[in-house]
Amino acid sequence: MTTTITEFFEQDHKEIDALVEGLTFDSPRALERFERFDARLERHIHWEESLLFPAAARHAPQLQAGPIGVMLAEHERIRDLKEIVLDALRRGDARTAADGARRLFAILADHNFKEERILYPACDGSLGAAERGALLAEIGAGGGRAPKKAGPVTLELTVNEVADRYPRTRAVLARYGVDLCCGGVHPIGMAARAHGVDPEELLGELNAAAAPGR
Ligand SMILES: [Fe+2]
Ligand SMILES: [Fe+2]
User: Fold this and answer.
1) DSSP of 160-213, one letter per residue?
2) Which of 5, 92, 139, 149 falls between 20 and 30 A from 45, CA-CA?
3) Whole-Å CA distances, 150 to 51, 142, 207
């Protein structure tokens, strides 16, 4: 039975890696296999960003500025490369897909190594046994599961909800300066008006960024 953060997340890394083991990008099932890998990796990253990292940072604020900040930046790079591979596979461009995947897997190997050797053990050290158990139980029960991205962004969702459900909108929110507005607890429409931004214009850009396949 898994008892530590390190063991649970390390095992998840292994299972995710196995989904693309030996994958050849010119095979007819490459897209299907890579999409399954993508979904599992998104779920994993979502667990880290929405549950594990915030809990660890509450107990050890120094982690936020150090290893957590580095991992979050790498997640964005990982997401960008995944999209490059998915886009190439959907266009039938196996060569670009293989090239993107080579870069993705190299970054991922390095990223996972650092998490397993540095960040997860630090999380295990900073969270008490009870909180660690509660967090793992929440994940096991489906807590923090990556939400469906099918629905559009609406003006009623809060800034935090949009950033959390549609990670690719974060760059748009940052560009309009509404990402950290009042802790992100206000609806997008209200936050836009507070910053002198046209809500409909912002909504359009958010939905363009959040659209599947982007
Ligand atoms: Fe990660
Ligand atoms: Fe990870």
Assistant:
1) HHHHHH-GGGHHHHHHTT-SSGGGG-SBHHHHHHHTT--HHHHHHHHHHHHSTT
2) 92
3) 22, 19, 11
CA distance 203 to 198: 9
Q: Whose atoms come closest to the Cα of 107: which ligand? A: 1
Instruction: Break the chain into its structural domains and give their ranges.
Output: 5-140, 159-210
C-alpha 137 to ligand 2 mean position (Å): 17
What is the value of pTM for the model shown? 0.68
- For the domain made up of 5-140, the CATH class stated in words is mainly alpha
Q: How far is the CA of 193 from the centre of ligand 1 (A)?
A: 34
Nearest ligand to the C-alpha of residue 8? 2
What's residue 2's pLDDT? 53
pLDDT of 143 reads: 58
Q: Which residues of the chain have pLDDT under 70?
A: 1-2, 141-150, 179-182, 212-214
